Amino acid sequence: MKVVTVGTGMAAAEFVQRLRLEGFGGEIVMCSDEGFAPYSPCVIPFYLAGEPLKTVYWKGKDFYERYRVTPNLSDPVVEVDTERRLVRSASGRKETYDRLFFATGARSWHPHPEWLETSGVFGFKTLTDMMAIDRYIRERNIKKAVVFGGGFIGVDAALALRHRGLEITLVHRNTRLLSQMTDEDGGQFATRKLAAKTGIDIRLKNTVSEIVTAGGQLTAVEFSNGERMETALLIVSIGVSPNSEALCGNDKGVPSNEQMLADPDIYTAGDVAVTRHAVTGEQGIFATYPNAMQQARIAARHLVHGDGSFGGSVNTNVLKKHIDFPIVSAGRFEGEAITRQQGDIWRRVYMKEGMINGYIIIGDTRISGFIYHLYLSRKRVDKSIGTILSEPRHDSYYRGMLGIAGANRN
Amino acid sequence: MKRIFVDYKKCLACKACETACAVEHHPGHSLLAALCDHKTQVNVRVLGIDHEAFPLSCRHCDPADCLNACPSGAISRDPESGAVLLDASFCKACAMCAMVCPFDAISFKVTHRSQYNRDVAYKCDLCNERIKEGKNPACVEACHSGALVYAEHDSLRGKHAAKSLRTYLLGAEGMPAHVELFRELRRKEFARRRGDE
After folding, report:
1. CA dist B153 to A147, A275, B157, Å?
2. Which of B71, B90, B95 sits opposite A320 (nearest CB)?
3. Is A50 on the interface with B (CB under 8 A)?
4. Residue A180: which of A240, A270, A268, A234 has the closest Cα?
């Protein structure tokens, strides 16, 4: 049997590694538009912040040799022919398959794709992007940057570049940073704290509406409020869209079933896959590493053993990179809100039918794992949740285990 | 697979485990070097909850949520000892592991294992090098009261089952008299502090 993966990202690498560990001895071909060994998108901003390149290859730089893979790199797959079971690449190469693993991930979405033709404007998604930004900063001795987009990737970019020593202006359309990961209050708390802790100039309710160029070189940006700022570096990170065109003909992601099958011969996983949320049941793209990894393992197991099913994705995420100030969240921010704040720590849980419906934990991670498991296990915690959140020594899990009531018992 | 087990009723909160862990994981391997060094890492923490206390540390779960959540290849399992290990040179301190650890066993700081002058995640490594030499983990070695035991789960459970049956049938508490006395004193002290008396 011949297996082809479209993509060499985290899902595809996990899938291939699992196939080999499960004893799959057939031919494996991995295709990518980039020219690298599988790398971790979570780690690449650290390369830009000055840490060594080798740490981005989280399964080793010798991945293809170690797992006996034929890599078809730097040649994007443009079409999947499910009838004839083959994929076509941009250069015209055809690759037949018995089973296809379609994990192409997502790409930066650009409101003005033509801006990228200007020297000094970059996306912030791939290792290719990181290398181009790194080279640009070094060659031009860049001291300041404007980051457009204050979602997870935008904040990640801003913090990485700040760590490198650049002066950062972060422009975001919403009333708060990380608007998908937070609710209004939590997001504003996080935004205020991030601004105070990092000195990043955060411009909210604002966008970059125009770029100013001279001879193909970026010299300044114009904001929607009419202001203008001199800069030679603009990072655009306002959103992503899944790379599902080659298989589905649109960019809405690849629907999958519980075996991670999109088609009888095609598995999918990762940031391109539409899956069911484990708690809410809604269908969506849940683009985090733990989801991608579980999906890839299910697919590999199903391919080799013919069994296994995916229990669903979870939209849990944490931002704590280049700064010791974690922002954790999961679930839906709907229901009865219970909030506790102590100094730099801000915690809110949304309750519905006595169970946790969603949560935001800002400032430390000490009870985040406990809350995460309470959320997933659908335990009724309406009587104890207030104490759990406000226990001054963050030891509510252990208190519960020993059966010793909390400090603020009434 | 052997694991560290905690009999919290025997924990006297002396923190000898914390001290031994700090020394074991300090590059100087000495108490003097580990003291007052802000990079000293202590992978076990004695948690006092009213009159009870016990050492809190990584349980080396299988499957381990932290291992499955780590996007930088820093967390792995030693197939021989079963220990969940964290390689600080790959750790990006992104907190995905801490976000899912139910036991709050992962912390962050600049340690002697930090390579890039920033915080990294740190946790118990089961003293993997020691146990491969046939020794006990440092905390277990240091525990005076028998609260920490490094043993196979099944054999320990068998012993406990037999012991509790004996305790049940004979009405004996099965706790050494001085430990029982200490617990009694501590219970009273905490009741007094709460103003129950």
Report:
1. 53, 38, 6
2. B95
3. yes
4. A240
Round to whole Å and give the CA distance between A409 and B196. 14
Closest CA to A302 of A268, A339, A273: A268
**Separation of alpha carbons B190 and B197, rounded Å:** 10
Instruction: Give the right CATH number for A110-236 from 3.40.1160.10, 3.90.79.10, 3.50.50.60, 3.20.20.70.
Output: 3.50.50.60
For the cut 90, the answer to whether the pLDDT of residue A68 exceeds it is yes
Averaged pLDDT for residues A85-94: 97
| Chain B residues bordering chain A (beta-carbon distance below 8 Å) | 8, 47, 49-50, 52, 54, 56, 65, 68-69, 71-73, 89-90, 92-96, 98-104, 106, 108, 116, 118-119
- What pLDDT, in 10s, does the model give residues A213-244? 999 999 999 999 999 999 999 999 999 999 99
At B194, which helix (H) or strand (E)? Answer: helix B177-194
Where does A2-106+241-305 sit in CATH, by number? 3.50.50.60
Contact between A375 and A361 under an 8 Å Cβ cutoff? The reply is no
Answer yes or no: are the C-beta atoms of B86 and A69 closer than 8 Å.
no
Query: Residues of chain B whose pLDDT is less than 70?
Result: 171-174, 196-197
Facing residues of B121 across strands?
B108
Q: Complex ipTM above 0.85?
A: yes
- CATH placement of domain A326-402: 3.30.390.30
The reported pLDDT for the residue numbered A249 is 95
Q: Answer for the pair A19, A300: CB distance below 8 angstroms, yes or no.
A: yes
- The pLDDT value recorded for residue A131 is 97
Judging contacts by C-beta atoms under 8 Å, the chain A residues touching residue B99 are 316, 318, 326, 328, 365, 368-369, 372
Q: Lowest-confidence range among A121-125, A315-319, B25-29, B153-157? A: B153-157
Given a contact cutoff of 8 angstroms between Cβ atoms, the answer to whether A160 and A41 are in contact is: no
Listed in sequence order, the residues at least 6 apart from B185 whose beta carbon sits closer than 8 Å to its beta carbon are none
Chain B contacts of A393, Cβ < 8 Å?
A: 47
3 state SS for A101-130: EECCCEEECCCCHHHHHCECEECCCCHHHH
Over residues A174-201, the pLDDT tens digits come to: 999 999 999 999 999 999 999 999 999 9
Closest CA to A207 of A149, A153, A168, A167: A149
